[in-house]
Amino acid sequence: INNGMKYLSIDDIETATIVNKAKGILNDWVVLTMTQTNRITQQQAFPEFFNQMTHQGIFRSDDTIAKFLRTTIQLCVNNVYDVIRQSSSAVAQQQPQYIRCHQGIDSLCRFLYLLTTQTSDNNNYATRIHLINCILGLIAALCFLDHEEQGDHFHPLAYQRILLNLFQESTNAVTLNTSSSTSNVENPLPNDPVMYYIYLAFTNCLHLLRPQRVTGFAFAWLEIVAHRTFMSRFLLSGGRFTRHIQNMYSLLLVDALRLVAPFIRSGENTPSFQAYYKGILKTFMLLLHDFPEFLCEHYYEFCDSLPLISHQLRNIILSSFPKHIRCPDPFKVNIKIDMLNDISTTPTISYNYSMNIQPAKFKSNLDSYLRTRSPVTFLSELRSYLQQGSDPGSHYNIRMLNALVLYVATQALSTINNKQPLMSSITHTAHMDIFQNLAVDLDTEGRYLFLNAMANHLRYPNTHTHYFSYTILYLFAEANSEALQEQIVRVLLERLVANRPHPWGLLVTFLELVRNPNLKLWSREFMSISPDVKRLLATLTHGFPQFPTSPISAQQPAIVKP
């Protein structure tokens, strides 16, 4: 796919000859598809065009094939620009002009799809995959170059429709040579490898055209990724490559999120960015409703790509839970988290977050400290390691801090004896020593990042939610200053004041913080500094008694003992 740029030159005589051949073949094909709308009829007529291309030497080498494909795509793109100019000068004819434009694009996509199937058979699909990669590489290269040359006059319509239509054609149920009318039951078509490489090709193409790289294509790009067909086929693909294909889709969503951070960091709130961000919100709301298991498995990499201020979007991601799980009402006064059946379930995380713990020497020292509490200088050096390779706009390496927090927690959970109460198991351990050191040794910014990293795992009932809920409450109870306690309340409150939905684990942790008389939240000095904050907390906890005077609260068992 990355080689698409080298076929953009049209200087040599051979290329000029191929251009003339491409014009004739493509014009004949467009006429046929507009007169013969039946897809089977088009498929039956295509071998004649294929033979014509063979006789004219189009398939003589990879170079001639690539130049032919480049010409057909460029002709279609030029036609779109011509239609746009005509429609701008004749507004009354805008709709018919765009319909004609779409017909030309659809004819090209049908031609390219049949070409990929005609060049391979049931036993050899490598040629088809190679041709698809060539086509997508040329589309990516042409789009990127067109974006650079046209500037503000760039129009993404042709590239968007070609990519989406070609994807729909290529990922239909019959994925190999559609001209075959029979199939051998004993020798089934190898659909899994074919579909895997097709999905991989489209992922690579869209990754090359990601919003950060081709900003003028951002809205069209997001429409492709969020399209119902594109999303459902990526996330509902069966077979042994299902998880790999879902990982490809998560990569594209991360690409979509990475355009958000620079705008928020710079304070730009332009109408175009608002529209883009609203599209992101709608996409993740759709995923939350239709594919919650996918969000559950990939939440880590999404949260890792978001700026801290994106509370509503982060809440949408963290509110997902598997469809077979029923989250109990967190507002019940007598809820007992320890007794929930699902609280002992370990969640699946598809992302290998431990890769972000660098360098290797630090990772080795971390593992050694968790096992033996040596070297003794590890805790004192921890802050300096977290400040190496800091992210833009921060003094800390946020990705490394997020990975460290989850890695330490998973190591702690692996050592817990299930027969012992969780609170007695997590305290006075090397894992808790690291968390307490981070809470005390980090400055205000670092502590805020650290607490947010823990709050990212307050989700549906599972071992991670259970562990981090206890850990946050324990750090609040054992804090030697109200500054840490105030930041804990701030991190939880910032997420709760955002629009719904709110993660179940976040609600449970916050309500325990409010209800538990041993934590003495309402008597803290920072609670009386701002009447607005206290009024906000009272509104959020409306219907619950304010401690420590409530008789109900005395009956409520405390998670954190004094």
From TrEMBL:
Question: Which InterPro entries did the record assign?
Answer: CCR4-Not_Not1_C, Not1
Q: What domain of life does the UniProt record list for this protein's source? A: Eukaryota
Q: Which residues belong to any copy of the CCR4-Not complex component Not1 C-terminal domain?
A: 195-540
Gene Ontology annotations for the cellular component aspect, listed alphabetically: CCR4-NOT core complex; P-body
Q: Which residue positions does the secretion signal occupy?
A: none
One Pfam entry name: Not1
GO BP terms, alphabetized? negative regulation of translation; nuclear-transcribed mRNA catabolic process, deadenylation-dependent decay
One of the record's GO molecular function terms: molecular adaptor activity
The name of this protein is CCR4-Not complex component Not1 C-terminal domain-containing protein
**Per the UniProt entry, what species is this protein from, by scientific name?**
Adineta ricciae
